[in-house]
Amino acid sequence: MTALLVAQLVFVAIVYQFLRDIDCTSFGQQKVCDVVRDGMGRALALLAVLALAIPARRRSFGFLWRRPGDDLDGALIPRRSAGMALAGFAIALLPALAPTSAFEPMLPLFALMWAVGFGLMAVAVLAATGSARDWLAALRDAGPVMAGALLLALISPELTALAEHAWDWPALTRLTFDLVARLLAMVPGALYVETGTLILGFDEFYVEVGGPCSGLQGFALITLMLTVYLTLFRDRLRLPQALVLIPIGIAASFVLNVLRIAVLVWIGARISPQLAVDGFHSHAGWLTFTLLSFALIGVGHLVFARPVTGPTAAPLPPVRRDPAAAMLVPLIVMLLTGLAAATLVTVPALAYPARALAIAAALALFAPYWRGMDWRPGAVPLGAGLLVGALWLITATAPADPALTAGLDALSPAMHGLWVLSRLAGAILLVPLVEEAAFRGFLIGTLGGGRWGRLAMLVVGAALFALLHAHPVAFVAGLAFGLVFLRRMRLADAVWAHAAANLVTASAAALSGNWAVV
Fold first, then answer.
1. How far apart are CA 272 and CA 281, in angstroms?
2. By the 8 A CB rule, do 459 and 401 touch?
3. Are 460 and 442 in contact (CB under 8 A)?
4. Of residues 288 and 262, which shows the higher confidence score?
5. Are the beta carbons of 426 and 352 closer than 8 angstroms?
6. Residue 121's beta-bridge partner residues?
7. 454 φ, ψ to 5°?
8. CA-to-CA distance for 349 and 355, rounded, in angstroms?
9. What is the Cβ-side half-sphere exposure of residue 452, based on CA atoms within 13 angstroms?
10. 82: closest CA among 385, 471, 442, 437?
11. Tens of pLDDT along 263-281?
12. How many Å is the maximal CA-CA distance in the chain?
């Protein structure tokens, strides 16, 4: 259920960030925009606290480790929770269907729809894993520390606003400025340094190192995260030795902040000012904070762990054989790597070899589950896929991307060949399995239930498939793959049909050089 929630959130974020050209900050109703932004911040903070608290207090949350099927009537996910999650997902995506001109006048209504949609998705996770009584009892048993952590997460936007001017420590800002300048001085190029105004220029790209760039915000975030971690896991860590993680985290946060600003300036000067300002600047800080947090928590478990005494909850089930994880985690990896490519690369399609490698690794993680399936191909799935591929080509209207063409032409023959091979492998082997597992295997096979439920999930899966691909016949293709799946309820049939369709389109793309048709 957590994987389903994450996949839904990432999908919604991609739709509103990349498929719709909406700049909320340009609207007159800035307060409504702030409510939407702060709501997402609260949700992420609450998820972070729960992600730390549940494994730290497994005895309190013992109901989460019940054996599958204990009270679910044999279903992987309760039908009511599945319906609630999909209803919330649909409500959150409904505003994306409105014209851009409608967003400003209807923003309050859309904000309410997002709140209701995300709320239903979150409640679906809670309802699928335990009753309201279970969750309330667990929170009471976890004690006041847990309650305080959840309260801090809930009011995190207000705390950030109160500390808005606390990040400006002039001495630290100047030290950051000096270190960034020293780093850039080591790189060939024209460096401009204005010490009075803290302006840095590099090859005609200029930035001002202001108070928020000092790194204090990162210090506060990493200190808060590690404090919550050390508090929740205090019975499993060697204290006070583990407290050394906090100064290590602060020092690492400062170093990463200096590197982040230097890389931002270099990207703006050598690659793309737009990528530096709109992509890297917006996401790099949170990305580095997240990676540093996970790294330090991992170090804490490896270096400062002590044996746990007393009764413990039952061990986790084997994740590599878990059907829901196998069908959803690779899709999450595919979506997240696409988001990362759009953030870090001027021409995101050029990063496809790295994306293909990450997707292949995600699929390989669940190899025990995939090996247990019957992969024999059939004439009907292959024939249906070839027809879909032909229809896709006939209706293709996307012209070749000149930026991608220029980028590929600039590659060496070996790198160009590697890109083409990875693109073909991704289209024909990886993507069919990832997308069919999620849109057909999970939606129809897991969530569908009876005949009418499966028909409803057939339409829902085709609609999501069409929204992701933005192609005239994507909805028809989704219906075709779904019907192939329903014919024998075999995921392999849908995968073979999708692979055959992509074989047609990928072959045409390789021959014509227009990769937009895939």
1. 12
2. no
3. no
4. 262
5. yes
6. none
7. -65, -40
8. 9
9. 2
10. 442
11. 888 888 877 776 666 556 6
12. 73
